[in-house]
Amino acid sequence: SIFEPIWSRNYIDHVQITVAETLGVEGRGGYYETAGALRDMIPNHIFQLLTLTAMEPPVSFDADSVRDEQAKILQALKFFTAEDALQFAVRGQYGDGVIDGKAAPEYRKEESVRPDSTVETFAALKLSIDNWRWADVPFYVRTGKRMATRHSSIVIQFKKAPFVLFRDTPIERLTTNRIEIHIQPDEGITLHFGAKIPGPIVKMGSVDMDFNYVDHFGEQISTGYERLLFDCMIGDATLFQRADMVESSWGIVTPILDVWSAIPPRDFPNYGSGTWGPADSELLLQKDGRAWKNTVHLPSSANEL
Q1: What's the pLDDT tens digit per position in 40-75?
Q2: Which end of the chain is more exposed for a tag (fewer CB within 10 A), N or C?
Q3: What letter does residue 12 receive in the DSSP assignment?
């Protein structure tokens, strides 16, 4: 009841969904050459997170009701034209670099990968949901291998206040409110907001309020595959896509794949291992006056590890 009234275009500026991996293809070069990051991650994993974030409250928390609402979001996603694919979709391929202090080879030198491969290991999209709740709220999604850190998160960025009350506070300290949902590796939620800095002068600083699952419940959450296998055994289909959801998901990404296939990239590899992806990914948000949240804030117990 606290968050639902503000969970809309009236208060939310944009949403970011990131699924970043530090691993490369890890011996799966043969498979990856036929797939790529877009096919491998976005129609399933990324769209699952997007629909759970954007869907209307279901009438009941059962598989059919939840997936009915998820399907409505997928149907409301704006389809990509060829022009949209060039403007709102970014692809990348990792070059060499450093991961955890160790040298990491570029994708084209991985086992079973063509030396002139044009397969993407990174993909980022700007998506729009054409419905009453989310009109004009962009959803930026990205996924990639050999990135700066292993982290999956959903960032809900709220709009700026219409009036700047604390004029003595430097502009860089007047950050907007946001909610960060940490999915892995350290599950939790962070609420980011402003607070007065102690002292006689009225100045604001940024603070975080953290919730961490391990702190409160004392045990690690099951991994994705453990949960899915358990759900299979008990017959719970909530986390599994239906045929209509699969069809809608692939209807979104297929025009992008067609454009990428017709226009091979000329700049691969275009991001170093251990970075946050290609420069065009940053430009995707910068041209809208926004920026990816690349600094990973972990809930309290994770910071102590």
Answers
A1: 999 999 999 999 999 999 999 999 999 999 999 999
A2: N
A3: E
In the chain, the domains with their CATH numbers are: 4-160+242-275 (3.30.360.10)
Catalytic residue among 45, 192, 216, 297: 45
Contact 74, 44 (CB under 8 A): no
First to last CA, the chain: 34
In whole angstroms, what is the distance from residue 96 CA to residue 292 CA? 23
Q: Helix 47-54 vs helix 63-76: angle between axes, to the nearest 10 degrees?
A: 100
**Catalytic status, residue 45:** yes
Closest CA to 47 of 253, 188, 300, 243: 253
Residues 67-124: pLDDT tens digits?
999 999 999 999 999 999 999 999 999 999 999 999 999 999 999 999 999 999 999 9
Report the run of H or E that residue 181 belongs to, with start and end: strand 178-184
